[in-house]
Amino acid sequence: MEAAKPPEGSTLQEVGSGKKLISAAFPKRALPDCITCSGGSEQSSRNNSVAAKGRRYGHGVTASYGEMCYHDNSLVSASLEALIQHLVPTVDYYPDRSYVFTFLLSSRLFLHPYELMTRVCHLCVEQQRSGDALLDKIRFREVAPKLVQLLTEWTETFPYDFRDERMMRCLNDMTQHVARGDEVSYSWRAMQQMTQRLIKRLSALGQYEEAVSALSAVAMERPASLKGRQAAGQRGDVMSACDDPFVLAQQLTHIELDRLSFIGPEEFIQTFAMKDPLENHKGFFRKRKTSNLEAYINWFNRLSYLVATEICMPVKKKQRARIIEFFIDVAQECFNIGNFNSLMAIITGMNMSPVARLRKTWSKVNTDKFEILEHQMDPSSNFTNYRTALRGATQRSETAHSSQEKIVIPFFSLLIKDIYFLNEGCASKLTNGHINFEKLWELAKQVSEFLVWRQVICPFDRDRRILQYLVTTPVFTEDELHLASYESEGPENNMEKDSRRSLRSSLLHRENRS
């Protein structure tokens, strides 16, 4: 049974501001130029009998159509089968783009992308069957452009789903099916072009992952032995690579935006999606489904440890104080740019206990600016100060007159936490077995906001030498940081003395073993 829809002429409104934000992430100009649809909005109705009745429902009114429930003209719940059917295009119907994004994003909470794609393609083909082969061919040829549009949106927004060889096989099957309808049709050519773009994107992803892995291997090389910290210092410090805080903040922004661009929107949902029973299936699960998201979190941790290493490395107190002041200035420039992730990583590094305990060093530092930055990123009241600053940066981005003003890089761990608690705090299914689509709208709202930020191109010039330093310079482990801190400013009590003695013994043992 086809899923019923609200009356023709009605408009689906967002839950909160969810759909408006989702639409902003997918402007109409991003639609494939070559594919046109006469019924390209949510108000195109599948069910003509419902539309003919012309029923309206106003503010505060809930209405059910088949297995789909609407409130104030907005979809709030439905059965999984109805949602799948709602995604399937017909000759005179194409689902709203915000619905396509929302359901493709969160459907993986309930079924595997491969299963969804198989069912959608099957329904699209079966709906054209009449028992007459020639008529079936004509009818499929008519619906093919809209099926191609749906698959194009899927491959362009969630390309990593197609690392699963079953997804690629299904895509190839549909290409052949379109070709059987008309080998010289535009739809067939569009399918070929779509597949080529997808392969190019997946190839770029593979190259990126290899590059990140290679850089991580270089960065894992241990710094020079702590027994000779002066020799370790000969590798140079961050200020020998770049002594301009604004330039360093620009290069950090390059790294942030580069790595953000490879995070798939589905990775946010897959961090808490059900464990797939086919997890050992080759292809899709060979690489972890959240690997790029995890790599980005690892970058945050690396930057924090790099800051702490740079501060703890110098033997002289004056040099340590100079580096602290330099990183405060870098953090300030990150805030001005809208790079909140690097800002928080720097603050985190400077608040690590091996750095925080260097009281003699800190006494030589003017901490006024640092205290202001800490206040901006204060976790009190659920990071209310940061959230205010983020809203300001977002508003600036929306009205930007320059590419630099468009930059918004959120504190990423908090973004993931927000999405996690949104998922945990709302039921995915209602007591009647329906999918809670209000929750799915809100998840999509959060993720689509990230997609808007992710697509910004960094406007600053690249400095490869500085970038190389930031991503490959070896950093101390937590134990090495503590020992370096004790070497800089000796233990102040018996507990710290015991800790230093234990760390020396442990690290010396590791060096001898290696």
TrEMBL record:
Keywords: Guanine-nucleotide releasing factor
PROSITE patterns, alphabetized: RASGEF, RASGEF_CAT, RASGEF_NTER
GO (cellular component) term, any one: plasma membrane
Gene Ontology biological-process annotations: Ras protein signal transduction
Pfam families cross-referenced by the UniProt entry: RasGEF, RasGEF_N
Region (Disordered) location: 487-514
Stored Gene3D superfamilies: Ras guanine-nucleotide exchange factors catalytic domain, Son of sevenless (SoS) protein Chain: S domain 1
All residue ranges annotated as the N-terminal Ras-GEF domain in the record: 71-199
GO molecular-function terms, A-Z: guanyl-nucleotide exchange factor activity
Domain Ras-GEF: 244-491
Listed name of the protein: RasGEF domain family, member 1Bb
Native source species: Gasterosteus aculeatus aculeatus (three-spined stickleback)
